[in-house]
Structures are given as structure tokens and as C-alpha cells.
Amino acid sequence: MMHIIPFFASTIVLSDLQLGSIILLSIFLILKRYRHTKVSRGLPYPPGPPGKPFVGSISEIAQYEAPRALARYREQYGDLVMLQGLGNKILVLNSLQAINDLLDQRGSIYSCRPNSVFGGELMGMKDGTLYLQHGEEWHAHRKLAHTVLGPAYVKQFFEMQEGIAATLAKSLIENPVEFFPLVRMSAGRIILGVLYGIPPSAAQTEYILLGERLMEVAAKATAAGKYLCDLLPFLKYAPACVPFQREAQIGRDLFFDFMTKPFHYVKHNITACSTYPSLVPTMLSSPPEDVSDLEKRLLWTTGALFAAGAETTYATVLSFILAMALNPEVQKKAQAEIEKVIGSRRLPAMHDRQGLPYVEAVVKETMRWQPSAPLSVPRRSDAHDYYQGYFIPKDTVIVPNIWAIAYAPNAKYNPEAFIPERFLDPEQPAVDPKLWAFGFGRRKCPGLYLGDNSVFILIATLLAAFDISPPKDSELVQEFTQHIVRFPKPYSCRIVPRSNAVVNLVEARAASSVM
Ligand code: HEM
Questions:
Q1: DSSP code of 56?
Q2: 438: Cβ below 6 Å to ligand 1?
Q3: Residue 191 Cβ < 6 Å to ligand 1
């Protein structure tokens, strides 16, 4: 039977089947709309930029200088900016208030990580602390990490960190041009010391270089939206010959070696690794009764701590050296403070920190000027939520934009400039980076105290020992990587010992360092 349907001025003739299909489709759309209105409580999604056909606005997360570009949207859309496309939603949080309200205050909803196809499944990192979903296993990892990274415990590593800082200074006196690999080596040594107690050796160097190669792949893998397979999960079934699958295979092999090699080294050389109360030797020699599956958990926890800890410290110190080459006045002021407070008969030590407010402000300003994780590490909402009159559906990827905090407009202190004084302003001091550069709520960085101490002692030692300035015959390059950990691209500068006396001090301190 045919049906005649008036449609504006004309008429349409439909069969039973066609009419039935239209009615069913309409019911489906109405129900869908009703369901959506019910769960969204009639609230809209947070606003965001208009998208391109098919891909929507989702690709904005992977654009060049994304943290800065996304922070600019704050003026237009406010604290919350929604990017959408290919069936995915990414919510960028552009203020400390919004980040704390959601990630901290509503930690039960926002403490999961996005399901990662590339890094988690294909590269095999899904059981590491950084990738684990919020839950029992993740809790066990954090508990293990806390045994050596708690604020009181990290004091046991002060002497080791001071020794490694002096060793860095000694290597820089001998070979200042190689400051990139030398800084990397120092950051890696501290973590290897804390986790495994591995002293300087060929094995130690091998693990740090392995870490460097892994990070080239892993840094991209952790960022939101860098790989299409994270947005279109069915692509994980693509054949092994496609480029991202080959990259994942390389990453998988590297990650396996990176995680297992130092662990097995310690298992077989436990007596050689006992200089400091480090995590793996302590746990293996006196296993805690309340931790089941200890070896497996240790392996995954230490792998994640090593990967997350070394790269961020390295990035921060490289940014500091660049900042000093660009800001000679700041450098002079910090050096004058060190001379006044400590004198020139010894190098700075961790216990000097309280008495060096300007150096402390330089540390904070380095973290602000070039935050090493400018988009933090993404989260995922584990339930529907409602905030500031907007609907945030379950499984939205949440990106806390640390850059937006670091570069919030400020009439008194230009955010683009390196001005440590902003942290010393008695009237309106800038917010301490410890409240935002290390993440938020339950997933806040477990290495905060260790990392912050490392950055301080490395920076203070470099200030005491060297004058850093731009290269004589070339431009000072100021470019940065675009991965989840942001650090300066290769640049050259001059790193010159401040006096013969300081060379002697450095050599003596480095000679007494066991790490
Ligand atoms: C300057 C130094 C460091 C910075 C700026 C930094 C920053 C961060 C940030 C932004 C996060 C994401 C937290 C979140 O999701 O809210 C994080 C997580 C993490 N960091 Fe750090 N970090 C530093 C040093 C370290 C060190 C030294 C270690 C290890 C010894 C470490 C281990 C980790 C781990 C394992 C996670 C994942 C935590 C989880 O998912 O539960 N970090 N870090």
C-alpha cells in the first residue's frame, strides 16, 4: 500500500516499508534525544572551537604549541574548552580553579587515565603506574612508590643528590659542549640510585641510554591524540607493516628491556646495590608481608618511576641553562646570594635551601617559564558529571592545561619573561608551581619531593660553579619539543667555571661521591 505525505508544497509517495522505517528511525532519534536530555539534564557540552568536516576540532590537541594555543581559548570560551571529533571528546581545563574543582574535589570521577591504544596496548605499558586505571592495582603501586618517595624518606638521598650534582659539574668542566647528555646522565643516575641503588658502572650508563631511546617513542605515546589509533581504536588491528605498528613494536621491545634489565641486575647483584636504602634491594631483601605479587608490582612500579622521573628532571635543568644564557642579570643575582649565604669554600647543599630565597625563586620560575609537562598527563571522566552549567559525559578525556596557569595574564609581571621576583612579591606572590606543575589530586606526581630536590641541587650547584652565557658566534636557539614532556631542542651556550677555586671544590666533592 502507498501513502501520500504532504511535504510543504509537494507530496511524497512512500511504501509500507519506507513509512515503517521512517517511524522507527524517528522513535529511535526521539528516544536518543530523550536519553541524552535525561543524562545531560538538558545542559549543553562546554563550548569549543568549530570543527572541520568529519574530524571536528579534535586535531587541535595535536597542533604545534598546543598548550599555548589552547590557553588562548580561555578568553573566548572560558575555563572549559571542549574539542570533539571522530566520536571522541577532549575537555581542556584552562584554570587552576577548574582543575582543582574537578581533579581534586571530584577525585572519584576524574582519577582514571584514558584508555591508551598506542602506549598502553600496542607498546605494552598499560600495567605501568602512569597508565593504570584508578583502582586496587594502582593503589598498590603508589604505596610501593611512597615507601621511598615520601617527604621524610627522600631526605636520605640528599647526600647522593649533592654528589651527583658535583659529578655533573666536574663533567661539565671537562666537556661543557656536551651538556645535554651530561644533564640526562645526572637525572638518570639519581633515579637509578633511588630505585635500584645501581652505582656508576657500564650497566648504569646502558640503562640511562636505553631510557633515552625509549622516551623518544614513549613521550609521543602518552600525549592525548598524537596517534590516530587512540582516536579510532579499531586501527589497532592494522597489519604489522603500517608505520605506527612498527613504531609500537620498537617501543614494546625497548620498554621490556628498560623495565626488566635494571631489575634483574639488582636481583643478581643485590650486595653491590646497597649503598643507599633504595627501593628494589630493600623490598627484595626484606619483603613486606602485606604486598602480594611483589616482584611483578615492583617491576611495573619501578619501570614507570624511572621513565617518568628522569625525563622531567632533565627537561627542567635544560630549560634552566637556557634561561640563564638569556637572563644574565638573574644569574648574577642568584650567584651573589649563594656567595653571601654559603661563601666560596664549599658547594651548595640541600640544607642551604631555606636560606636561598632567590635561588628558590629561580627554581620556581624555571618550572613556570617552561613547565616540563605543560598539558600534564591526561585523565578520563569515569561517570557523567555537571560543572559550571555544562554537561561532561563519561569517558571524556580531560586535559589539565598547566600552560594556562603558568602563562595567566599578569599586569605586573609579563608571563613571557623570566622574572623570579614574581614569586617574592610580598603583596601578590605567584602561585607556587608545586601546586600545579606536578599534577593534581589523587594522581599527583609521586616523585614531587625527589624531583623538586633534584632540580634545586642541580640548579644551585650549576649557579655556584659556572657562568652560563649565549654562544659567541651563533644565535641562541629557543625551540622546544612538542611531546608530553617539553624540553629545549638542541642549543649551544658557553658554560665556563667561575674560578680555579671552584674547580678544586667541584673536583674534591665529586671525588667523594659514591654515585
Ligand atoms: C621536575 C620534576 C617532575 C615533574 C614536573 C613531574 C610532573 C608530573 C606530572 C604533571 C604528572 C601527572 C600527574 C597527574 O596526572 O595529575 C606526573 C605523574 C607521575 N610522575 Fe612526575 N614529575 C616530576 C618528577 C618525577 C619523579 C622524580 C618521579 C619518580 C621518581 C616521577 C614519577 C611520576 C609517576 C610514576 C607519575 C604517574 C602517577 C600516576 O599516574 O598515578 N615524577 N609527574
A1: B
A2: yes
A3: yes
What pLDDT shows up at residue 375?
96
Task: Give per-residue pLDDT as tens, 353-370.
Answer: 999 999 999 999 999 999
Tell me the torsion sign for CA atoms 265, 270, 274, 276.
Answer: positive
The predicted complex's ipTM stands at 0.99
pLDDT digits (tens, 9 = 90+) for 52-105: 888 899 999 989 999 999 999 999 999 999 999 989 999 999 999 999 999 999
The residue whose CB lies within 8 Å of the most ligand 1 atoms, and thus the one to mutate among 222, 365, 445, is: 445
439 lines ligand 1 (CB under 6 A): yes
User: What pTM, to 2 d.p., does this model score?
Assistant: 0.92
**Largest Cα–Cα distance of the chain, in whole Å?**
103
Annotated binding residues, written as ranges, equal 445
Tell me how far apart the alpha carbons of residues 30 and 33 are, in angstroms, rounded to a whole number. 5
Q: How confident is the model at residue 8 (pLDDT cuts 50, 70, 90)?
A: very low
Ligand 1 center–CA 447 separation, angstroms = 6
378 CA: nearest ligand 1 atom: 15
Report the alpha-carbon distance of residue 40 to residue 494 in Å, rounded. 58
By DSSP bridging, strand 494-497 and strand 385-387 are unpaired
